[in-house]
Amino acid sequence: MHITSSAADVTSLVDCAQIPGLGFLPINAFVLHAEQPVLVDTGQPASSADFLDALWSQVDPDDLRWVYLTHPDRDHTGSLAEVLAAAPSARLVTTFLGMGILSIEYEIAPDRVFRLNPGQSLDVGDRRLRAFRPPLYDSPATTGFWDERTGTCFSSDCFGAPMSDPDLVRADDITAVPAGDLEAAQRMWATVDSPWITGVDRSAFEASLDPLRRLDPPVLLSTPPARRAVHRLLDTLAAAPDAPPFIGPDQAALDALLSGFTPGQGESQRAAAG
Predict the structure, then answer these.
(1) Which H or E run includes 39?
(2) Which of 66, 64, 108 is closest to 91 using CA atoms?
(3) Cβ-contact 12, 18 below 8 angstroms
(4) Which residue ranges form the domains of the chain, and what is each CATH number?
(5) C-alpha 152: how far from its chain's center?
(6) What is the pTM of this model?
């Protein structure tokens, strides 16, 4: 687990998961050091112990007030139950649909949940966090938000991209990733994580990018952080509808990939990202 300051008032908790044949997928959570501290997402289950150690080194459990869940996928909910148990004053922020999905696995008291829809804002004491629906998403419960005080934008998985090397997972800025590699990885991951993108009208999708273009956040927390680069990233996404649909390896191809995959390699690569 790698801990770094990625924006004003923001600490990133950086992890990754190796996907054979695709690369190293960044799995990021964030601590927003507002007057009422906010945790954004809770990592993957495989790294829960390391995640909790890193988290509580940045914020006291008794001080944590909000757990903003961008969406209820397992690489975002890995330590959710443990965090809520340890932080008695923290409330979970999600949508009505997000809470419905979570209720299949978790028992969370209704008074510990704050339901927030796109377009609405959350008051965290010294600033407001305004929720929005990212233009690219893999869950109907997905929201991101932007910090109205600093302008930092938390974009969920919208700009996700597997990295070719675990060292790039913990890069301080996307400029550390060769531009061509980043564009190819971002477009490929768009078809993996949001397969609907290859079936939409391109002009309609491009129109959905306009709100983020107008917002033009100074820092976009993506994979890795992007500073003054939102237009570049949106231009990359704009071409995603033209990309070929992703077709994963069949059993024979997967067997060939796994033949070179050493048992325990995932743990060593997560350590490398720490």
Answers:
(1) strand 38-40
(2) 66
(3) no
(4) 2-255 (3.60.15.10)
(5) 14
(6) 0.92
Q: List Cβ<8 Å contacts ≥24 apart for 228-232.
A: 229/174, 230/153
C-alpha–C-alpha distance, residues 136 and 197, integer Å? 8
Q: Is the peptide bond before 224 cis (omega within 30 degrees of 0)?
A: yes
Structure tokens at 33: 């050091």
If we measure between CA atoms, which residue out of 60, 147, 131 comes closest to residue 98? 131
Among 145, 133, 138, smallest CA distance to 221 is for 145
C-alpha distances (whole Å) from 224 to each of 140, 141, 179, 204 are: 24, 23, 13, 27
Contact (Cβ atoms closer than 8 angstroms) between residue 69 and residue 92: yes
CA distance 248 to 41: 27
pLDDT tens for the chain, 274 residues: list them.
999 999 999 999 999 999 988 999 999 999 999 999 999 999 999 999 999 999 999 999 999 999 999 999 999 999 999 999 999 999 999 999 999 999 999 999 999 999 999 999 999 999 999 999 999 999 999 999 999 999 999 999 999 999 999 999 999 999 999 999 999 999 999 999 999 999 999 999 999 999 999 999 999 998 899 999 999 999 999 999 999 999 988 999 888 878 876 655 555 444 444 4
Q: Is 170 helix (H, G, I), strand (E, B) or coil?
A: coil
CA distance 185 to 50: 27
Instruction: Count CB neighbours of 125 within 10 A.
Output: 11
